[in-house]
Amino acid sequence: MVSPAAKRLEAADADRAQVHRARILTRVTDGRRAAAARTMSRMPVDIREARPEEHPAAGMVTQRAWLEFERPDDPSWRVYFERLGDVAGRAERALVLVAVERGQVVGTATVELETTLEPGAMLEPGVARFRMLAVDPERRGRGIGRALVEACLERARAAGKTAATLHTADEMAAATALYRSLGFERDPGADLEVAPGVVLRAYRLALAGTRPAGS
Q: How confident is the model at residue 62, as a pLDDT?
């Protein structure tokens, strides 16, 4: 007959064994995830103008990326969220770039070169404006956002623009850090209040090395 003390020891041993197996499984799983991340980081990402058949996917990526900034009680946010998904609509008025990996859209950005997305609004002469930068949340941390912004800058220079502008929000800390690292500086006079208490911070970058349009 097994004594109560022996049973307690056996139970403790079983618990320790279970914890040990769980730790091993966690290490294996983490290792597999790390290996997958390393493999993905080596995959080439193509940055180019969005094709019409890619518009729906680019819209979904944009909405997924912006969902974390949702303002549930703000009706204007719901309207804007629908606009984020309408890539076909903004491609009629601006340049839409996509980041494509193995045939899948994983990021996107919009560049206003001649007209704005809002009918009746005007761009400053010689200025390009960047809008709606988005990277699929599962693909962040791999430089895709930087590559998209650098592609936007190149397109602006090629169009003969002498400055680039954009707006971002305080909660978009990663995007703000990216813009600052590329040389964008605050332009407080161009800040926009899009809803009560919601202010979009303006940034501006002078474009060195701009090529005259058509050259």
A: 98
- Give the residue from 122, 203, 193 showing the smallest Cα distance to 165: 203
Q: How far is CA 103 from CA 39, 42, 44, 68, 77, in A?
A: 16, 15, 11, 26, 31
Average pLDDT over residues 188-196: 90
Residue 135: helix, strand or coil by DSSP? strand
Residue 74: per-residue pLDDT: 87
What phi and psi values does residue 19 have, to the nearest 5 degrees? -65, -40
Q: What is the distance between the alpha carbons of residues 120 and 67, in angstroms, rounded to a whole number?
A: 28
Helix-, strand-, coil-residue percentages of the chain, each rounded to 5 = 45, 25, 30
pLDDT at 121: 87
Residue 63 has which token pair? 């909405």
Confidence of residue 67 (pLDDT cuts 50, 70, 90): very high
Q: Up-side HSE of residue 33: CA atoms within 13 Å toward CB?
A: 7
| Gyration radius of the chain over CA positions | 24
